Amino acid sequence: MKEQASTEVDKASKANRPSQLLTNDENEQLFDLLGKRCQTLCTAVVQLYMTQSPAHASWMKKWTGALCFIKDNIRKSYFFRLYCLKGNQQVWEQEIYQGIEVTKPRPFLMVFEGKEGIVAFNFATDDEATAFMNTTTSTISNRNRRRDERIKRSSTRKEPPPARPPPVSSQKEDTTVTLRHKPTFSAPTIPNAAVQPQPYQPPQFHNHQRSAAKNKGKPRLRKEDIGMPSNFN
């Protein structure tokens, strides 16, 4: 029994991708923080920057820690999660929402739009930045491909055959019908062209409707409006 339990632990440990900048003990400590049925597909040491509200015109460093690209089998989704090993806790999370666009404007930098503003990961090494970007883009691409395949399969499902018509009677029936009142049909009324339904504007994040409503009317912030993080000392 002990050998079997040890084998299961080894398999779980090998499934998680460690950071080469962390020691074996630090990686094991990190893996213990991931939670039940969670796996890190990529791990890196980063500084996390976010734009500062309300104007979102400047960057602010929030945390320095171990960043994991998490596959959460219980929640059936993917997440960016940042852990503080000194505090032995998770300090930040962002779900990989549908339609997320992740860019890499510098060899050491990843940028995307988060739920509270623009987020930037400043990686300790270019190699870990490249590995993390590759994992992110491949996972998003595979998820989109599976979604498109499901949509295609559902649209090509065969419809049930129509009901069989009743048998034709051999007896001749009187099909003459006398109308007591002649029906009148009026032409349909064309609605006023000036009154048209407004186009639907989908929220940026499917689980952040309150934030979208709160910021209604404010101009949309673009990543191009904000400079790259600097002074990372």
TrEMBL record:
Ranges of Basic and acidic residues composition bias in the record: 146-161
Comp. bias regions, Basic residues: 207-221
Superkingdom of this protein's organism: Eukaryota
Spans traversing the lipid bilayer: none
UniProt xrefs under CDD domains: EVH1_WASP-like (cd01205)
Span of domain WH1: 34-143
Cross-referenced Gene3D superfamilies: Pleckstrin-homology domain (PH domain)/Phosphotyrosine-binding domain (PTB)
Region Disordered, annotated ranges: 134-233
Pfam families (alphabetical): WH1
InterPro entries linked to this entry: PH-like_dom_sf, WASPfam_EVH1, WH1/EVH1_dom
PROSITE patterns, sorted: WH1
SMART domains: WH1
Protein name (Swiss-Prot/TrEMBL): Putative wasp
Species: Aedes albopictus
Organism phylogeny: Eukaryota, Metazoa, Ecdysozoa, Arthropoda, Hexapoda
